[in-house]
Design brief:
Helix content: 55-70%
Number of helices: 31
Largest sheet: 2 strands, antiparallel
Structural class: mainly alpha
Distance between the termini: 68 Å
Number of strands: 2
Shape: globular
Strand order of the largest sheet: 1-2
Length: 713
Amino acid sequence: VEKLFEVAVNGSDEDKVSAATILCGATLLRGWNFQEHTVRLVVKLLSSSDLVDLSGRESQLVKHGPMLNVILTGISPVDYVPIFSFHGLIPELAAALMAICEVFGRMSPSVSWSLRTGEEMSAHTVFSNAFILLLRLWKFNHPPLEYCIMGDGAPVGSQLTPEYLLLLRNSQVLSVRSSAKNRNNQKQLPITSSPTSEHPIFMDSFPKLKLWYRQHQACLASTLSGLAHGTPVHKNVDSLLNLMFRKANKGSNSIGSLSGSSSISNSSGPGDDSHLWPQFSAWEILEAVPFVVDAALTACSHGRLFPRELATGLKDLTDFLPASLATIVTATGVDVPRLVAGGSTLGTLPLPLAAFVSLTITYKLDKASERFLNLAGPALENLAASCPWPSMPIVAALWTQKVKRWSDFLIFSASRTVFHHNNDAVIQLLRSCFTTTLGMSSTTSVCSCGGIASLLGHGFGSHCSGGLSPVAPGILYLRIFRCIKDCSILAEDILSLLMFSVKDIAETTVSKHRSDKLKKTKYVMRHGQVSLASAMTQVKVAASLGATLVWLSGGTALVQSLFQEMLPSWFLSVQNLEQGGASGGTVYKLGGHALAYFAVYCGMFAWGIDPTPVSRRRERVMWSHFEFLASALDGKISLGCDLSLWRAYVSCFLGLVVECTPCWMHEVDVKVLKRLSRGLRHWKEDELAFALLRRAGPEAIGAAAEMILSSDW
């Protein structure tokens, strides 16, 4: 593999292309035993030796244009991005792509290379392949959900910023540099171990990309502002509009641009029109595209441009600069109507969505178009899902006509859009997750044997007569949870569903066994023990599912809210779990254990069990929760919940912390632990009270010794 890398760097132009092709083939995708080396070499080939100095055509990147394009197209399929992510190379790859975009985006399309196939490859081609892959990295490697700004539709902050990617890259470089100083055999390290550049990289190194990203954020945040007449951008907009719609509506009709001066040219002729397009750089075109699309949509909405002509013009633009597809996916200032509760809409598509659907359908389903559809597909799905019903079913029907083998997936995508508009449907889906996992689903045709198999199923497809087989609720939730608008309310609903599940477990498991008593009295106690053990197993499963749903939906911020707000409020309020049931006090004891496992699982998912926490939040959150428990045991807080539930929660929670996460106690004041220990001894939980102090670290040894001396042990 390293020999191939040397050929790709120092060989002839043809040898470079050949070596790069081999490295991006099965060597990278399927060579598990040497994939780690190959993936790093590929990133090195994409990177300039000095990313800080990107001086246009003199850059080293320009010399390797054909080889870079082979690599970019080679790693563009969807299977490759997870490989780079698995090896932690997304930040390094993103930095390399930013440099390629910065350099090739400045060039005129007249800058080209002759390939050995006889074709010409322009700078626009290299730029587009790098730019679209870069945008896909932002979407793939998303930040924690607590950094997102949730609102109507997709969260604005759901994609990584270029600055954040560079921050991760610089952090990795610093870490490698620090570890290298501690190695005695540094000179013997292979070439795959060192980063491409040891210097930090910032957005100021990519001024063109930085300018475009600011415009991109502005387009997402609000409608487009007016474009001043006579500016270079205004002239570029006019030129692009004239060429895109030169064959449309000849004569008096015109496409009124934002300045009112853009009209459709009357010139049109047969044959290849590529020579008619202006020699703008890619960055100049991307700067003009939002205004171009907005003007075209406005003209179409006023009847001055037919929809077919709109789609054809947009396709001509994306053929000239494929990277413009990324900006077309952006909001263009034309309001998209939303679903009104209780209302109804006609079966039509809003104009921006209709134009985008028409544009995507024009692409051929071949390898060359795959990388563009991989970017446009998710955007189309998200846009259709946010539009009024039945927008997504219409889109699915149109695409099914083009690709019938995608019908199952498109039907599935269309059916799940109801969760984007209806919160009650989300609650029903969560309830289905609990019932199917616990094997209590009797009203649906989904497998009711319980467990992970019922929760996640086996995918989806036309496996039954008359249409699709039922989709497992867990798979469905994985596809819709990122679009849920209020995660705080969602956590409360999950907590309520957990307790309802405990009630069902108590009634269907414990009470059922109790009512089915054996004739011989000596077997009754033994039978009851078995039923309680079975119920406890179900309770643990329900708690682990609830914690998974909370962590998946809201991350550490939602877990923090659970410990500091939701659980204390739940204990302070009156909870009647026995209403309508015949399970006695057992439901409260099971409920306390369920909440304890639920809380511990959530804390494990969010902050881990290592002595060194992954976040400083753990110390603050654990301190507040332990303080709440101690204050309640001291009698300083009046509880509203059943005391048997409270006692079961405290005993089980502290027992799990002692056995599974003792490092959590190291972050709590010893005085608080001593108060908890006194409360446990008051409940005759002497062993747990002693274990709490014994596992709390050196600072609590004195308190543990005092406890031993003051007891009858």
